[in-house]
Amino acid sequence: MSYSESLMEFPHALDIITELQLSKDIQEVPPWVKGMSRLRVLRLYDCNNLVSLPQLSDSLSWIDANNCKSLERMDCCFNNPEIRLQFANCFKLNQEARDLIMHTSTSRYTMLPVAAAAFTKFRFQQDNKDTISSVLALPCPPTSVSRIWKHHVFPSFHGEDVRKTILSHILESFRRKGIDTFSDNNIERSKSIGLELKEAIRGSKIAIVLLSKNYASSSWCLDELAEIMKCRELLGQIVMTIFYEVDPTDIKKQTGDFGKAFKKTCNGKTKEHVERWRKALEDVATIAGEHSRNWRNEAAMIEKIATNVSNMLNSCTPSRDFDGLVGMRAHMDRMEHLLRLDLDEVRMIGIWGPPGIGKTTIARFLFNQVSDRFQLSAIIVNIRGIYPRLRLDEYSAQMEVQQKMLSTIFSQKDIIVPNLGVAQERLKDKKVFLVLDEVDHIRQLDALAKETRWFGPGSRIIITTEDVRVLNAHRINHVYKVKFPSSDEAFQIFCMNAFGQKQPHEGFCKLAWEVMALAGNLPLGLKVLGSALRGMSKPEWERTLPKIKYCLDGEIKSIIKFSFDALCDEDKDLFLYIACFFNGIKLHKVEGVLAKKFLDVRQSLHVLVEKSLISINQSGLIETHTVLKQFGRETSRKQFVHGFAKPQFLVDARDICEVLNDDTIAFYRDYTEEELSISEKALERMHDFQFVRINAFAHPERLHSLLHHSQKIRLLHWSYLKDICLPCTFNPEFLVELGMYASKLHKLWEGTKQLQNLRWMDLCYSRDLTKLPDLSTATNLEDLILRNCSSLVRIPCSIENATNLQILDLSDCSNLVELPSIGNATRLEELNLNNCSSLVKLPSSINATNLQKLFLRNCSRVVELPAIENATNLQVLDLHNCSSLLELPPSIASATNLKKLDISGCSQLKCFPEISTNIEIVNLIETAIKEVPLSIMSWSRLSYFGMSYFESLNEFPHALDIITDLVLIREDIQEIPPWVKGMSRLGVLRLYDCKNLVSLPQLSDNLEYIVADNCQSLERLDCCFNNREIHLIFPNCFNLNQEARDLIMHTSTDGYAIFSGTQVPACFNHRATSDSLKIKLNESPLPTSLRFKACIMLVKVNEETSNDDSLTVVTIDIVDKQNDLEVLCTPSSRCINAPLTEHIYTFEVKAEEVKLMCSYCKKHNDKFVPDPYYGGAQGFEKVLDLLEDACESLLDSITAQS
């Protein structure tokens, strides 16, 4: 809800609001906001008078403050660990507020404006102090962590207080740990710090401020501190504090002895100088640091400081080990929620995915990022190779693998492991980070990490595997399933390995995309293929490409073979079936077709999913990765060539043309006639096919003999078959699925054949089909798809025997006259008779126990519907344009779950239907219904209600408040009734053939569509349109005056407009008759975004060109030619329904300016920013130089404009 001043007068509302947006003119957050018990989201947009935030409810999970230009302070704290703090464009936030946001411990993200900041992705509590550290940071971005630093640490201190005491010990501890500290011994002291000291501060990665009681007595120290705090804000420099025998409160408020010293130093200084010191002291006092008074042992405090500094330097040193990795940040973001390094519990995390997807790379990267946080750490690689599945002496194998693990962890080659209890005894009190890579059976985990109690608090054990059953058996609940990279990421991975950069060399782009497609987004495939092609010329790439298509790389094959060989024989066979024949097929169909081939198809499929060899998507489709599919096909081919007694699959021209033997049972073809050459002798041996799928427009006629010789076909898919009938010898007794898409068949076969196994029949677009076979034996038929079989006149009565029928699709069977009884089909879920324009007779009743959707659109000759009995599951009833239908069956009232009823165009219907009050969509347009029951007011789910205008409509005021779509058709009206403007929910107003209508009055601003079609007398628009979403559609309104046309054309809207016209309006001064338009924009300065009108006018190319009902899509692409950049534009496309010639189509386009950073640079001539990760330390420095140059220029530009 949005805030209003009177909101507190409704205390009941305060207890239920979960999201509140405050108004722009608010000066403070009302105190009663804190008491809103259910408030989860607080939004503050453009609250330019708001200066501070008070303490708010701990129930808040999101504070979203955007562009609050005066917001400075946070007089609060945030205790919800799930809170999200978002303060975009709040540039006046003071340092204390920024520190509060940045240091708040939350599992969500935080956002605040900074010039630069060290990357901190994940936080945890270390020891018993409030220390914040980066844990899952990627190689540090080009800020404080990626500059070229001259020193590790710059210490700021008051010499007389600490130089001979604590400071000397700190510097010695730093020296022992290899930490380089700046020394100011050779710098001559003066009243203010000079350029040399400023450069030393800016050139140090970490600044340590050692605050003592006389620190403020030195203007030198205070100037140092001001410079340090400036570098912290602008450069992201890390600042650490040590409070030595001084209270942080005295520093912040300048009180006590510290305050006296500060006051004395300020004497004679300018107000500006003093305020800069004061601000620096206030800010540094809020930085959590070490307090000497909290430590009994000063040596221990110094050791902790030195360790923290060392760890901070290590964690912010960019790693070169993983240069070029793509998509790793996303993996780390997902892993952090599983790792939970802030918890002391021992946690085992699984990384699961198919071979070659990058599990080991993710684990190694993770190890590189966090292992230094643990006492002990190790990666044990290739465990399945060290300890294979088949070992006669299991115990010895477990001892060996545990010995290797402990040897790696303790860096001790000759470690002795007398029994399996050694690992637990040695590691139970140690914080360990352990990666167990390529685990493939549970006994390996029993030897290496049997229980969490084997390891000390805070330990993390990472297990990579291709078999999720291993993780489930070990009761590992935290599992990261690695997904395939996006196409863009995959392309970058390939290019990194093929070209050493994230984009291809000139002239290689198309070839690179082709090779990437063969690897199918599998990272291993992308790396191997990219490396194999690296350094080759373009002709060499072109010569190598055909080999890549048909031969899997040996390295990839060997990795996949590990998983394949671990399967039992039956699971291997099923994988080959999927890879060669059933990839992309629905799960239930694969189970049905292969039911008699395997003992338990579902269980075997489950095994393949767990082994990451296949996947099943949300739509139930079985999917096999491109590389895995190629492996399966090559394995099958190899078995065939070597004469193994295994199932054979012929999937390409080369296989088919080989000498065939009698073991061949499956056949797949997707090639043109020119590629296929088969001898008659080969065909004679093709007598045992069980699965045939042929997808081709052209194929040799002798392939038809397949149907003569193969008597046990279980699946037959043959698209574009040219025969008018299947051969008389064809035996469908074993047929489970039949698909004959767009065939020339007149009939399938003669007589009655045994069809007990048939479950799915699809003959769609077989436009010559006139007759279906006898279906009396098809008792298990589930789907019968006859869409667009336009010559089919009737369905055989034997369809009544199809008692298991679930889907019957007869849409666009335009010659179908009668639908026989289907009363026995009690499992029917969908009946589609759309566009059966000749349909006259329907069965007297339909058992609708399971029926969910019934479609009869444009069945204009249907007079009476069957009784729809037991329709409790019916959700959609679409009767659009059943113009002869006299009434709806009373049984429709039993459809208590009906969500959509469309009876628009049923012009004979006069009575408002008795329907469920739970309905969501009701369309009564173009019916004879002239009443609306009062009960409709209680239909709470109703979102759309369309109705045609009738004279007494205003006598039903309750209807006026519900109608969302109103149609006036061929009405003899001269004006729009005034009450139309008051229809509060009206979103669409349609005016069809209103030939006496002269003008449109002012209408509701809620309208999103005004459609006036063929309103021949319409001249004036006495109104304006204020809704930015409105669509103004005025086709065939040829009498509109110029003022009306200008109003339509110039109305600013995110929708579109249509009006008649034979010439492009003069205001569109940039024109073209082709599909592109080049515009030179020389106005200066250009705004950051452009909104402009576009116009399209279609003309007749010749006299034969006519208007049709097709859909035309206009795609909008804007390119900045000068910089060769694609400009972001909204919208990116427009759809034109039934495009008309001699009409003007207009719409607005908003183009966002894309400005290259280097275009602002004055000191550099670079056109593009280089990738810093490929230039080493100098690369980061180069990017920073460009950034500083561009920012200076941009700031000058902004200043000049303001």
UniProtKB/TrEMBL annotation:
It comes from the Eukaryota. It catalyses: NAD(+) + H2O = ADP-D-ribose + nicotinamide + H(+). Residues 149-313 form the TIR domain. It is an enzyme of class 3 (hydrolase). Signal peptide: none annotated. The keyword Ligase does not apply. SUPFAM superfamilies: L domain-like, P-loop containing nucleoside triphosphate hydrolases, Phosphotyrosine protein phosphatases I, Toll/Interleukin receptor TIR domain, Winged helix' DNA-binding domain. Its EC number is 3.2.2.6. GO terms for biological process: defense response; signal transduction. Pfam families: C-JID, LRR_3, NB-ARC, TIR, WHD_ROQ1. This is ADP-ribosyl cyclase/cyclic ADP-ribose hydrolase. The lineage of its organism: Eukaryota, Viridiplantae, Streptophyta, Embryophyta, Tracheophyta.
